[in-house]
Amino acid sequence: MRIGELAALLGVSTRTVRHYHQQGVLPEPRRRANGYREYGMRDALALARVRRLVALGLSLEEARDVMADDRSKELPEILAEIDADLARQEEALRVRRRRLAEVLRQAEAGTLGPEDTASPDLLAFLKAVDLPESKAAAWDRDMLMLMDSVAAAPEREHAFAMLEALAADPEVTARGHEFYRRLDELADAEPDDPRIAPLAAMLADYSMSHLLGDDGSGVPDGSVETMEPFLDGLAPAQAEVVRQAVRRIAAR
User: What's the rounded Cα separation, in Å, for the pair 207 and 200?
Assistant: First the structure.
């Protein structure tokens, strides 16, 4: 039979069969004199086995290992690992559902506040860093809340691991509090205040040293425009500090 007939027999597309060939999962028969590849019952059984292994949760690489030397004795070990991973995912889902139930209860009772929807990592960080009572710090806290809400789990975990390390450094924390104090002093200043540029330079240097890396790779193109909608909560001079800091980082 031809590749189309083999694919139809197993309920897959010819593209899938060719992909399995390319990945080395499914042996590809030689071309006959007529230029076509002819598939037989052995090929159908092999394809059926690959499909079964994939359905069980094996990656194509793992399925290839099983198929290569018919090392089926390794299959129970592979399946046990997959089962353990699924068990971990199941427990994580149970934890999330318990948290969701608590948030739902608070929402129905009208007692749900911003901190109630924050992740434990963010709450732990905010407690450790002890942000001062200021408008600038409140804005920064709101930005952290937003990041916590929209970031993917791996990115969020990486970010808060880094922030927790910074919070554990008293000197870094002191510099952060000093920045908030100086930013609050600009609450009633004009956008051309001479204090803006030095403070923007301080913020840029701090970010490059502790948050972004020396190449500024953490700042995407057009980042000033991206930040613009979030600057409404700051006074004009304060917003200009953030704009200039981001431009300095992007320029590096």
Answer: 10
